[in-house]
Amino acid sequence: MDRLDVAALTGTLCSAEFDETVVCEHRDPPTGPVAGAPSHGRPLYRRRVVGTFSQAARLVALARQLPRIPRRQRLHRTRLLAHFARSFLVRAPSIPDAAGGLTAMNDIPILLIYAPSLQSSDGTTVQLRRLLAEFPTPVWHIHGYSPPAFADLPGNCASLPILLEPRYPFRKGAGFVRRAWRRWWVPRFVCSRLAQATRVHRAPPPQVAYVVVYDELHAVFARAVLGAAGVDRYVLHMMDLFHARFDARAQPNLAKLIAGASGVFAVSSRLADEIAPAARQPVEVLPLVTGFVRPSATSSVRTAPYLMMSGALYAGDPHRLDFLRNALLPAWLELVKEIPGIEWLYSGADAGSLPPPLRAVIKNCGLLDQATWCATLAGARCTVFPIIHHDGDHYRYSVPSRLVDSLAAGVPVIAPSCPNTATGDFLDAFSNRGVIVATTPEEVQVQLKRLFCDDDFHRRQVIAALSAAEGFSLKPTQRQLFEAIQRVEA
Predict the structure, then answer these.
(1) Counting Cβ atoms within 10 Å, is residue 100 exposed (0-12), middle (13-18) or buried (19+)?
(2) What is the pTM of this model?
(3) Which residues have C-beta within 8 Å of that of residue 296, sequence separation ≥ 6?
(4) Is the Cβ–Cβ distance between 210 and 138 less than 8 Å?
(5) Domains of the chain, residue spans
(6) Does 110-288+474-489 match 306-472 in CATH topology?
(7) Which is nearest to 386 in space by CA: 351, 356, 420?
(8) Which among 201, 235, 26, 205 has a CA at the least distance from the CA of 108?
(9) Which fold has domain 110-288+474-489?
(10) Beta strands 44-49 and 343-347: pairing type?
(11) What is the pLDDT of residues 388-409, one digit of tens each?
(12) What's the CATH architecture for 306-472?
Protein backbone atom coordinates (compact mmCIF):
# COMPACT_ATOMS: atom_id res chain seq x y z
CA MET A 1 0.00 0.00 0.00
CA ASP A 2 1.40 3.41 -0.95
CA ARG A 3 2.03 5.94 1.81
CA LEU A 4 -0.79 8.46 1.99
CA ASP A 5 -0.05 12.17 2.44
CA VAL A 6 -3.00 13.03 4.68
CA ALA A 7 -2.29 16.76 4.79
CA ALA A 8 -2.03 17.05 1.02
CA LEU A 9 -5.18 15.00 0.55
CA THR A 10 -7.10 17.10 3.08
CA GLY A 11 -5.94 20.32 1.46
CA THR A 12 -6.83 19.10 -2.01
CA LEU A 13 -10.36 18.08 -0.99
CA CYS A 14 -10.96 21.25 0.99
CA SER A 15 -9.76 23.57 -1.76
CA ALA A 16 -11.33 21.82 -4.77
CA GLU A 17 -14.86 22.35 -5.91
CA PHE A 18 -16.74 19.21 -6.70
CA ASP A 19 -17.96 20.12 -10.16
CA GLU A 20 -14.65 21.40 -11.47
CA THR A 21 -11.48 19.73 -12.65
CA VAL A 22 -8.48 20.09 -10.34
CA VAL A 23 -4.84 19.43 -11.03
CA CYS A 24 -2.91 17.31 -8.54
CA GLU A 25 0.33 15.39 -8.45
CA HIS A 26 0.53 11.61 -8.63
CA ARG A 27 3.66 9.68 -7.75
CA ASP A 28 3.22 6.73 -10.12
CA PRO A 29 0.64 7.48 -12.83
CA PRO A 30 -0.75 4.51 -14.77
CA THR A 31 -0.72 6.31 -18.11
CA GLY A 32 1.11 9.15 -19.84
CA PRO A 33 0.76 12.84 -18.95
CA VAL A 34 -2.16 14.95 -20.04
CA ALA A 35 -1.60 17.04 -23.13
CA GLY A 36 -0.39 20.47 -22.15
CA ALA A 37 1.17 19.42 -18.84
CA PRO A 38 4.75 20.57 -18.18
CA SER A 39 7.33 17.96 -19.11
CA HIS A 40 9.94 18.97 -16.48
CA GLY A 41 9.91 17.65 -12.92
CA ARG A 42 7.01 15.55 -11.67
CA PRO A 43 4.22 15.61 -14.25
CA LEU A 44 0.81 17.00 -13.45
CA TYR A 45 -2.29 14.90 -14.08
CA ARG A 46 -5.79 16.19 -14.48
CA ARG A 47 -8.29 14.72 -12.05
CA ARG A 48 -12.00 15.16 -11.46
CA VAL A 49 -13.44 15.02 -7.97
CA VAL A 50 -16.65 13.03 -7.95
CA GLY A 51 -19.04 12.24 -5.13
CA THR A 52 -21.12 14.22 -2.64
CA PHE A 53 -20.22 16.86 -0.10
CA SER A 54 -21.10 14.52 2.77
CA GLN A 55 -18.58 11.99 1.47
CA ALA A 56 -15.92 14.69 1.24
CA ALA A 57 -16.62 15.84 4.79
CA ARG A 58 -16.39 12.27 6.04
CA LEU A 59 -13.08 11.73 4.24
CA VAL A 60 -11.57 14.97 5.58
CA ALA A 61 -12.76 14.25 9.11
CA LEU A 62 -11.25 10.76 8.99
CA ALA A 63 -7.95 12.20 7.75
CA ARG A 64 -7.80 14.74 10.59
CA GLN A 65 -8.50 12.07 13.21
CA LEU A 66 -5.60 9.82 12.22
CA PRO A 67 -2.91 11.44 14.44
CA ARG A 68 -5.13 11.08 17.53
CA ILE A 69 -5.90 7.34 17.33
CA PRO A 70 -3.65 4.44 18.50
CA ARG A 71 -0.89 3.32 16.16
CA ARG A 72 -2.37 -0.13 15.46
CA GLN A 73 -5.75 1.31 14.50
CA ARG A 74 -4.05 4.14 12.62
CA LEU A 75 -2.48 1.71 10.15
CA HIS A 76 -5.86 0.11 9.42
CA ARG A 77 -7.58 3.49 9.09
CA THR A 78 -4.83 4.74 6.78
CA ARG A 79 -5.34 1.79 4.46
CA LEU A 80 -9.08 2.34 4.41
CA LEU A 81 -8.53 6.03 3.76
CA ALA A 82 -6.14 5.30 0.89
CA HIS A 83 -8.65 2.87 -0.63
CA PHE A 84 -11.44 5.44 -0.30
CA ALA A 85 -9.31 8.24 -1.71
CA ARG A 86 -8.30 6.24 -4.77
CA SER A 87 -11.92 5.53 -5.62
CA PHE A 88 -12.78 9.15 -4.83
CA LEU A 89 -10.29 10.83 -7.15
CA VAL A 90 -10.55 9.51 -10.72
CA ARG A 91 -9.34 10.60 -14.11
CA ALA A 92 -11.53 13.06 -16.00
CA PRO A 93 -13.76 11.56 -18.72
CA SER A 94 -12.23 11.78 -22.12
CA ILE A 95 -13.57 13.05 -25.43
CA PRO A 96 -13.21 11.01 -28.65
CA ASP A 97 -10.29 12.31 -30.69
CA ALA A 98 -10.62 14.01 -34.05
CA ALA A 99 -9.80 10.82 -35.91
CA GLY A 100 -12.81 9.06 -34.42
CA GLY A 101 -10.80 6.68 -32.23
CA LEU A 102 -11.45 5.80 -28.61
CA THR A 103 -9.56 7.61 -25.87
CA ALA A 104 -9.21 6.33 -22.33
CA MET A 105 -12.03 7.45 -20.05
CA ASN A 106 -10.08 6.95 -16.85
CA ASP A 107 -7.61 4.63 -15.22
CA ILE A 108 -10.25 2.71 -13.26
CA PRO A 109 -10.56 -0.82 -14.70
CA ILE A 110 -13.76 -2.38 -15.97
CA LEU A 111 -14.79 -5.64 -14.34
CA LEU A 112 -15.58 -8.31 -16.95
CA ILE A 113 -17.80 -11.07 -15.54
CA TYR A 114 -17.74 -14.02 -17.92
CA ALA A 115 -17.33 -17.59 -16.68
CA PRO A 116 -15.01 -19.01 -19.41
CA SER A 117 -11.48 -17.75 -19.93
CA LEU A 118 -10.78 -15.17 -22.63
CA GLN A 119 -8.16 -17.58 -23.95
CA SER A 120 -10.74 -20.25 -24.90
CA SER A 121 -11.56 -21.20 -28.47
CA ASP A 122 -15.39 -21.04 -28.52
CA GLY A 123 -17.16 -18.50 -30.70
CA THR A 124 -18.46 -16.26 -27.90
CA THR A 125 -14.99 -15.92 -26.39
CA VAL A 126 -13.55 -15.14 -29.81
CA GLN A 127 -16.05 -12.30 -30.18
CA LEU A 128 -15.24 -10.91 -26.73
CA ARG A 129 -11.52 -11.13 -27.41
CA ARG A 130 -12.01 -9.08 -30.56
CA LEU A 131 -14.19 -6.48 -28.84
CA LEU A 132 -11.85 -6.00 -25.89
CA ALA A 133 -8.60 -5.92 -27.85
CA GLU A 134 -7.24 -2.37 -27.78
CA PHE A 135 -10.12 -1.33 -25.53
CA PRO A 136 -9.37 2.14 -24.10
CA THR A 137 -9.62 1.11 -20.43
CA PRO A 138 -8.08 -1.77 -18.44
CA VAL A 139 -10.26 -4.86 -18.09
CA TRP A 140 -10.15 -7.23 -15.10
CA HIS A 141 -11.72 -10.56 -16.01
CA ILE A 142 -13.24 -12.73 -13.27
CA HIS A 143 -13.62 -16.27 -14.61
CA GLY A 144 -13.22 -19.93 -13.75
CA TYR A 145 -10.07 -21.95 -14.23
CA SER A 146 -9.73 -23.13 -17.80
CA PRO A 147 -7.74 -25.65 -19.87
CA PRO A 148 -4.49 -24.64 -21.61
CA ALA A 149 -4.75 -21.37 -23.48
CA PHE A 150 -5.79 -21.33 -27.13
CA ALA A 151 -5.02 -17.65 -27.79
CA ASP A 152 -3.10 -14.84 -26.15
CA LEU A 153 -4.87 -12.59 -23.69
CA PRO A 154 -5.50 -9.02 -24.96
CA GLY A 155 -2.83 -6.67 -23.68
CA ASN A 156 -5.24 -4.51 -21.67
CA CYS A 157 -6.92 -7.48 -19.93
CA ALA A 158 -5.92 -9.01 -16.60
CA SER A 159 -7.03 -12.58 -15.86
CA LEU A 160 -8.41 -13.22 -12.34
CA PRO A 161 -9.33 -16.93 -12.22
CA ILE A 162 -11.37 -18.31 -9.34
CA LEU A 163 -12.60 -21.76 -8.43
CA LEU A 164 -16.19 -21.91 -9.63
CA GLU A 165 -17.16 -25.25 -8.12
CA PRO A 166 -15.38 -28.48 -7.17
CA ARG A 167 -15.35 -31.53 -9.37
CA TYR A 168 -17.98 -34.00 -8.20
CA PRO A 169 -18.49 -37.58 -9.42
CA PHE A 170 -22.29 -37.55 -9.26
CA ARG A 171 -25.08 -36.17 -11.41
CA LYS A 172 -28.06 -36.10 -9.03
CA GLY A 173 -28.08 -32.79 -7.18
CA ALA A 174 -25.28 -31.31 -9.28
CA GLY A 175 -27.30 -28.18 -10.03
CA PHE A 176 -27.87 -27.56 -6.33
CA VAL A 177 -24.15 -27.93 -5.62
CA ARG A 178 -23.27 -25.50 -8.41
CA ARG A 179 -25.75 -22.87 -7.21
CA ALA A 180 -24.72 -23.20 -3.58
CA TRP A 181 -21.02 -23.04 -4.43
CA ARG A 182 -21.41 -19.94 -6.57
CA ARG A 183 -23.65 -18.21 -4.05
CA TRP A 184 -21.58 -18.85 -0.90
CA TRP A 185 -17.97 -19.49 -1.94
CA VAL A 186 -17.52 -17.44 -5.09
CA PRO A 187 -17.72 -14.11 -3.18
CA ARG A 188 -14.77 -15.14 -0.99
CA PHE A 189 -12.61 -15.88 -4.02
CA VAL A 190 -13.71 -12.69 -5.78
CA CYS A 191 -12.75 -10.46 -2.84
CA SER A 192 -9.37 -12.14 -2.62
CA ARG A 193 -8.65 -11.79 -6.34
CA LEU A 194 -9.73 -8.15 -6.51
CA ALA A 195 -7.60 -7.25 -3.51
CA GLN A 196 -4.64 -8.98 -5.12
CA ALA A 197 -5.22 -7.19 -8.46
CA THR A 198 -5.49 -3.83 -6.69
CA ARG A 199 -2.09 -4.38 -5.09
CA VAL A 200 -0.38 -5.75 -8.19
CA HIS A 201 -1.73 -3.22 -10.71
CA ARG A 202 -1.75 -0.31 -8.21
CA ALA A 203 -5.20 0.71 -9.40
CA PRO A 204 -8.51 1.42 -7.70
CA PRO A 205 -11.15 -1.32 -7.68
CA PRO A 206 -13.61 -1.46 -10.58
CA GLN A 207 -16.78 0.58 -10.29
CA VAL A 208 -18.53 -0.62 -13.47
CA ALA A 209 -18.93 -4.17 -14.78
CA TYR A 210 -19.45 -5.69 -18.20
CA VAL A 211 -21.46 -8.89 -17.69
CA VAL A 212 -21.78 -11.64 -20.32
CA VAL A 213 -24.18 -14.51 -19.56
CA TYR A 214 -26.15 -17.29 -21.26
CA ASP A 215 -28.50 -18.78 -18.69
CA GLU A 216 -29.62 -18.98 -15.06
CA LEU A 217 -26.43 -20.64 -13.80
CA HIS A 218 -24.26 -17.93 -15.33
CA ALA A 219 -26.62 -15.33 -13.83
CA VAL A 220 -26.10 -16.82 -10.34
CA PHE A 221 -22.35 -16.52 -10.86
CA ALA A 222 -22.62 -12.94 -12.17
CA ARG A 223 -24.79 -11.73 -9.30
CA ALA A 224 -22.45 -13.32 -6.75
CA VAL A 225 -19.46 -11.54 -8.31
CA LEU A 226 -21.28 -8.20 -8.49
CA GLY A 227 -22.24 -8.43 -4.84
CA ALA A 228 -18.75 -9.42 -3.72
CA ALA A 229 -17.12 -6.65 -5.78
CA GLY A 230 -19.57 -4.03 -4.55
CA VAL A 231 -20.49 -3.04 -8.11
CA ASP A 232 -24.09 -2.05 -8.75
CA ARG A 233 -23.70 -0.46 -12.21
CA TYR A 234 -23.15 -2.80 -15.11
CA VAL A 235 -23.78 -3.38 -18.79
CA LEU A 236 -25.31 -6.76 -19.61
CA HIS A 237 -24.56 -8.61 -22.84
CA MET A 238 -26.74 -11.63 -23.64
CA MET A 239 -24.81 -13.77 -26.13
CA ASP A 240 -27.42 -16.56 -26.15
CA LEU A 241 -30.21 -18.09 -24.07
CA PHE A 242 -29.76 -21.72 -23.03
CA HIS A 243 -33.38 -22.20 -21.98
CA ALA A 244 -36.46 -23.30 -23.87
CA ARG A 245 -37.78 -19.77 -23.38
CA PHE A 246 -37.20 -16.88 -21.03
CA ASP A 247 -39.38 -17.12 -17.92
CA ALA A 248 -38.85 -14.77 -14.99
CA ARG A 249 -40.29 -17.36 -12.58
CA ALA A 250 -38.10 -20.20 -13.82
CA GLN A 251 -34.96 -18.02 -14.12
CA PRO A 252 -35.24 -15.50 -11.25
CA ASN A 253 -31.54 -14.62 -11.11
CA LEU A 254 -31.40 -14.01 -14.85
CA ALA A 255 -34.53 -11.85 -14.65
CA LYS A 256 -33.08 -9.77 -11.81
CA LEU A 257 -29.80 -9.41 -13.68
CA ILE A 258 -31.61 -8.13 -16.78
CA ALA A 259 -33.83 -5.77 -14.77
CA GLY A 260 -30.92 -4.26 -12.83
CA ALA A 261 -28.69 -3.58 -15.82
CA SER A 262 -27.94 0.02 -16.78
CA GLY A 263 -27.60 -1.11 -20.39
CA VAL A 264 -28.61 -4.34 -22.14
CA PHE A 265 -27.18 -5.77 -25.34
CA ALA A 266 -28.32 -8.87 -27.24
CA VAL A 267 -26.57 -10.77 -29.99
CA SER A 268 -29.64 -10.87 -32.24
CA SER A 269 -33.02 -9.21 -32.64
CA ARG A 270 -34.77 -12.49 -31.72
CA LEU A 271 -33.01 -12.57 -28.36
CA ALA A 272 -33.65 -8.86 -27.84
CA ASP A 273 -37.39 -9.41 -28.33
CA GLU A 274 -37.31 -12.39 -25.94
CA ILE A 275 -35.75 -10.56 -22.98
CA ALA A 276 -37.22 -7.09 -23.63
CA PRO A 277 -40.18 -7.50 -21.16
CA ALA A 278 -37.76 -8.01 -18.26
CA ALA A 279 -35.43 -5.12 -19.10
CA ARG A 280 -35.91 -1.62 -17.72
CA GLN A 281 -33.67 -0.19 -20.44
CA PRO A 282 -34.15 -0.59 -24.20
CA VAL A 283 -32.38 -3.71 -25.45
CA GLU A 284 -29.87 -2.94 -28.19
CA VAL A 285 -28.48 -5.41 -30.72
CA LEU A 286 -24.68 -5.48 -30.69
CA PRO A 287 -23.54 -6.75 -34.12
CA LEU A 288 -20.88 -9.39 -34.54
CA VAL A 289 -17.40 -8.27 -35.51
CA THR A 290 -14.98 -9.95 -37.85
CA GLY A 291 -11.44 -10.84 -36.92
CA PHE A 292 -10.29 -11.58 -40.44
CA VAL A 293 -7.16 -9.71 -41.51
CA ARG A 294 -6.26 -10.10 -45.15
CA PRO A 295 -2.75 -11.56 -45.46
CA SER A 296 -0.06 -9.67 -47.32
CA ALA A 297 0.47 -12.55 -49.77
CA THR A 298 -2.41 -12.64 -52.23
CA SER A 299 -1.89 -16.24 -53.35
CA SER A 300 -2.64 -19.28 -51.22
CA VAL A 301 0.01 -21.77 -50.25
CA ARG A 302 -2.16 -24.48 -51.84
CA THR A 303 -2.32 -24.81 -55.59
CA ALA A 304 -5.48 -26.95 -55.85
CA PRO A 305 -8.86 -25.34 -55.07
CA TYR A 306 -10.37 -26.35 -51.75
CA LEU A 307 -13.50 -26.12 -49.63
CA MET A 308 -12.99 -24.67 -46.12
CA MET A 309 -14.89 -25.65 -42.96
CA SER A 310 -14.09 -24.37 -39.48
CA GLY A 311 -15.41 -24.03 -35.95
CA ALA A 312 -17.41 -26.21 -33.59
CA LEU A 313 -19.37 -29.15 -34.97
CA TYR A 314 -21.38 -30.05 -31.84
CA ALA A 315 -20.92 -33.70 -32.74
CA GLY A 316 -22.21 -34.82 -29.35
CA ASP A 317 -25.67 -34.49 -30.88
CA PRO A 318 -25.74 -36.85 -33.89
CA HIS A 319 -28.50 -34.86 -35.59
CA ARG A 320 -26.19 -31.84 -35.80
CA LEU A 321 -24.20 -33.55 -38.56
CA ASP A 322 -27.19 -34.56 -40.70
CA PHE A 323 -26.43 -31.87 -43.28
CA LEU A 324 -22.80 -32.95 -43.59
CA ARG A 325 -23.57 -36.65 -43.73
CA ASN A 326 -26.71 -36.66 -45.88
CA ALA A 327 -26.34 -33.63 -48.17
CA LEU A 328 -22.80 -32.31 -48.40
CA LEU A 329 -20.88 -35.59 -48.44
CA PRO A 330 -22.74 -37.14 -51.43
CA ALA A 331 -22.48 -33.86 -53.36
CA TRP A 332 -18.76 -33.61 -52.61
CA LEU A 333 -18.05 -37.16 -53.75
CA GLU A 334 -19.75 -36.46 -57.07
CA LEU A 335 -17.80 -33.21 -57.49
CA VAL A 336 -14.48 -34.96 -56.83
CA LYS A 337 -15.19 -37.26 -59.76
CA GLU A 338 -15.54 -34.23 -62.06
CA ILE A 339 -12.70 -32.13 -60.58
CA PRO A 340 -9.93 -34.41 -59.33
CA GLY A 341 -7.50 -32.93 -56.84
CA ILE A 342 -9.85 -30.61 -54.96
CA GLU A 343 -9.66 -30.76 -51.15
CA TRP A 344 -12.01 -30.35 -48.20
CA LEU A 345 -10.20 -28.77 -45.23
CA TYR A 346 -11.33 -28.45 -41.62
CA SER A 347 -9.89 -26.10 -38.99
CA GLY A 348 -11.05 -26.66 -35.43
CA ALA A 349 -10.96 -28.97 -32.43
CA ASP A 350 -13.80 -31.37 -33.31
CA ALA A 351 -12.33 -33.42 -36.16
CA GLY A 352 -12.00 -36.47 -33.92
CA SER A 353 -15.75 -36.55 -33.37
CA LEU A 354 -16.58 -36.85 -37.08
CA PRO A 355 -17.94 -40.20 -38.29
CA PRO A 356 -15.53 -42.35 -40.35
CA PRO A 357 -17.09 -41.58 -43.78
CA LEU A 358 -16.53 -37.86 -43.25
CA ARG A 359 -13.14 -38.32 -41.65
CA ALA A 360 -11.99 -40.20 -44.74
CA VAL A 361 -12.52 -37.25 -47.09
CA ILE A 362 -11.86 -34.24 -44.81
CA LYS A 363 -8.30 -33.12 -44.20
CA ASN A 364 -7.90 -31.97 -40.60
CA CYS A 365 -5.74 -28.85 -40.11
CA GLY A 366 -6.37 -28.63 -36.36
CA LEU A 367 -6.48 -25.34 -34.48
CA LEU A 368 -4.61 -22.77 -36.54
CA ASP A 369 -3.02 -19.58 -35.30
CA GLN A 370 -4.59 -16.32 -36.44
CA ALA A 371 -2.21 -15.58 -39.32
CA THR A 372 -2.35 -19.12 -40.74
CA TRP A 373 -6.11 -19.27 -40.36
CA CYS A 374 -6.58 -15.97 -42.22
CA ALA A 375 -4.28 -17.12 -45.04
CA THR A 376 -6.08 -20.46 -45.33
CA LEU A 377 -9.52 -18.86 -45.31
CA ALA A 378 -8.52 -16.23 -47.89
CA GLY A 379 -7.39 -18.93 -50.33
CA ALA A 380 -10.56 -21.05 -50.13
CA ARG A 381 -12.87 -21.32 -53.11
CA CYS A 382 -15.85 -21.38 -50.75
CA THR A 383 -16.73 -22.29 -47.18
CA VAL A 384 -19.48 -24.38 -45.67
CA PHE A 385 -21.53 -23.81 -42.52
CA PRO A 386 -22.12 -27.41 -41.45
CA ILE A 387 -24.70 -27.11 -38.65
CA ILE A 388 -28.47 -26.91 -38.82
CA HIS A 389 -29.87 -24.80 -35.98
CA HIS A 390 -33.41 -25.71 -34.91
CA ASP A 391 -35.84 -23.41 -33.15
CA GLY A 392 -35.86 -25.58 -30.01
CA ASP A 393 -32.10 -26.08 -29.64
CA HIS A 394 -29.34 -24.22 -27.90
CA TYR A 395 -27.68 -21.53 -30.03
CA ARG A 396 -30.97 -20.68 -31.73
CA TYR A 397 -30.59 -17.03 -30.67
CA SER A 398 -26.95 -16.61 -31.70
CA VAL A 399 -25.12 -16.20 -35.00
CA PRO A 400 -21.79 -18.01 -35.51
CA SER A 401 -18.89 -15.64 -36.09
CA ARG A 402 -17.47 -17.93 -38.79
CA LEU A 403 -20.22 -16.70 -41.13
CA VAL A 404 -19.09 -13.10 -40.69
CA ASP A 405 -15.44 -14.05 -41.10
CA SER A 406 -16.12 -15.81 -44.39
CA LEU A 407 -17.93 -12.78 -45.78
CA ALA A 408 -15.11 -10.49 -44.65
CA ALA A 409 -12.62 -12.72 -46.47
CA GLY A 410 -14.71 -12.51 -49.65
CA VAL A 411 -15.35 -16.26 -49.62
CA PRO A 412 -18.89 -17.46 -50.51
CA VAL A 413 -20.69 -19.58 -47.91
CA ILE A 414 -22.87 -22.63 -48.51
CA ALA A 415 -25.25 -23.20 -45.59
CA PRO A 416 -28.40 -25.23 -44.86
CA SER A 417 -31.71 -23.59 -44.08
CA CYS A 418 -32.21 -22.83 -40.35
CA PRO A 419 -35.81 -21.53 -40.04
CA ASN A 420 -37.02 -19.66 -36.95
CA THR A 421 -33.51 -19.04 -35.61
CA ALA A 422 -31.15 -16.07 -35.52
CA THR A 423 -28.78 -17.94 -37.82
CA GLY A 424 -31.63 -18.48 -40.28
CA ASP A 425 -32.42 -14.75 -40.19
CA PHE A 426 -28.78 -14.00 -41.00
CA LEU A 427 -28.71 -16.48 -43.89
CA ASP A 428 -31.94 -15.10 -45.33
CA ALA A 429 -30.70 -11.51 -45.03
CA PHE A 430 -27.55 -12.26 -47.05
CA SER A 431 -28.93 -14.88 -49.40
CA ASN A 432 -27.27 -14.52 -52.82
CA ARG A 433 -25.10 -11.82 -51.28
CA GLY A 434 -22.21 -14.11 -50.44
CA VAL A 435 -24.45 -16.72 -48.76
CA ILE A 436 -25.97 -19.59 -50.72
CA VAL A 437 -28.68 -21.55 -48.92
CA ALA A 438 -28.89 -25.18 -50.06
CA THR A 439 -30.31 -28.05 -48.05
CA THR A 440 -30.86 -31.09 -50.28
CA PRO A 441 -27.99 -33.09 -51.89
CA GLU A 442 -29.11 -31.97 -55.36
CA GLU A 443 -29.10 -28.28 -54.42
CA VAL A 444 -25.71 -28.57 -52.71
CA GLN A 445 -24.20 -30.38 -55.70
CA VAL A 446 -25.45 -27.71 -58.14
CA GLN A 447 -24.14 -24.81 -56.04
CA LEU A 448 -20.77 -26.46 -55.36
CA LYS A 449 -20.25 -27.07 -59.06
CA ARG A 450 -21.12 -23.45 -59.89
CA LEU A 451 -18.70 -22.11 -57.27
CA PHE A 452 -15.84 -24.36 -58.39
CA CYS A 453 -16.43 -24.25 -62.15
CA ASP A 454 -18.21 -20.97 -63.02
CA ASP A 455 -15.69 -18.15 -62.52
CA ASP A 456 -18.20 -15.38 -63.31
CA PHE A 457 -20.68 -16.67 -60.72
CA HIS A 458 -17.91 -17.05 -58.17
CA ARG A 459 -16.66 -13.51 -58.82
CA ARG A 460 -20.14 -12.03 -58.30
CA GLN A 461 -20.50 -13.87 -55.01
CA VAL A 462 -17.07 -12.66 -53.84
CA ILE A 463 -18.01 -9.03 -54.56
CA ALA A 464 -21.36 -9.47 -52.81
CA ALA A 465 -19.69 -11.05 -49.76
CA LEU A 466 -17.20 -8.20 -49.38
CA SER A 467 -20.02 -5.68 -49.66
CA ALA A 468 -22.12 -7.50 -47.04
CA ALA A 469 -19.19 -7.67 -44.60
CA GLU A 470 -18.89 -3.89 -44.34
CA GLY A 471 -21.51 -3.87 -41.57
CA PHE A 472 -19.41 -6.10 -39.31
CA SER A 473 -16.26 -4.03 -38.88
CA LEU A 474 -14.77 -3.77 -35.40
CA LYS A 475 -14.60 -0.02 -34.72
CA PRO A 476 -18.33 0.89 -34.88
CA THR A 477 -19.35 -2.03 -32.68
CA GLN A 478 -16.54 -1.39 -30.23
CA ARG A 479 -17.56 2.27 -30.04
CA GLN A 480 -21.18 1.27 -29.36
CA LEU A 481 -20.09 -0.88 -26.42
CA PHE A 482 -17.63 1.73 -25.15
CA GLU A 483 -20.21 4.52 -25.21
CA ALA A 484 -22.69 2.35 -23.28
CA ILE A 485 -20.09 1.75 -20.55
CA GLN A 486 -19.21 5.45 -20.62
CA ARG A 487 -22.86 6.38 -19.97
CA VAL A 488 -22.95 4.01 -17.01
CA GLU A 489 -19.77 5.48 -15.53
CA ALA A 490 -20.93 9.09 -15.97
Answers:
(1) exposed
(2) 0.75
(3) none
(4) no
(5) 6-91, 110-288+474-489, 306-472
(6) yes
(7) 351
(8) 205
(9) Rossmann fold (3.40.50)
(10) unpaired
(11) 888 877 778 988 889 999 999 9
(12) 3-Layer(aba) Sandwich (3.40)
